[in-house]
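Sorry, explain these tokens?

***
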Amino acid sequence: MRKRTLGQGLSVSAQGLGCMGMSEFYGPGDEKESIATIHKALDLGIFFLDTADMYGPFTNETLVGQAIAGRRDEVVLATKFGIERQNDGTRVGINGRPEYVLGACDASLKRLGVDYIDLYYQHRVDPETPIEETVGAMAELVAIGKVRYIGLSEAAPETIRRAHATFPITALQTEWSLWTRDPETDGVLNTVRELGIGFVAYSPLGRGFLSGAVRSIENLSPNDFRRHNPRFAEENLAKNLLLVDRVREIASEKAITPTQLALGWVLARGDDVVPIPGTKRTPYLEENGAVDDVVLSSEDLRRLEEVFPPGVAAGDRYPDMSPVHR
């Protein structure tokens, strides 16, 4: 697996591994299989691991910590704070207060079983706390060695600028894929490139939809959150499946899978872009990892641009878009 650099010096694998689905949101998990998947990722050279305190809640960090025990020096570890939840899963709200940031970091370090976090993100921007105060607390964590680099997730251009002026932001994490091209149109991509901030693309496979595996909502587990996602709703699903069918056609011509084509498109967007596809199963991980050998021609990219212009997907990407891009 090749490497890429985020910001001014954080070297990571060219794609990472999103660990969220191992603990929540995408149906039942299997801890043993998930740990085996993380081990396989490290063996393949995919060493950029992404988690958050709210996944589970709290259990995903513990799982990742168990998986990397004894292999910490092989891992670039990213986690997040800011979406506050109770142990029973109840959502409390968005919290960016400095005292909360410091306490959340200590709790994450304990669950992960590590002495430091490589990349610490604010998961969502707290509209009630000036970004300068939140980032100031994150800078304190860097100064005392608990965090190496800091990042933001789902932040708007002006917020990114204010944060970066307070302390260097290494990475901005936002959803980006063929069917979610918002960063190209809302100013986020241009802003981070102007400031020299790396871009970490989550859900680069459209929450698994671009793989072609989901043809009906009945393919999803009863507790899969995609059942409540607007793009998977009946009125939008048929339209979006037409897009997926075009991905399958182009991928077939290149003798690769739809997953590899969709992931290859994100990787082709620049060396400052690092996608973090999530999976909890080794075969899917290996399929993703093989994208390192996929080369998309200018004609391939042109055809994909025709099929997937910005805004083509039917439906919002979240049921409630109000917390996004503050």
In short: The chain is about 35% helix and 15% strand. Residues 201 and 275 are 4 Å apart (CA to CA). Residues 234-253 form the longest helix (20 residues).
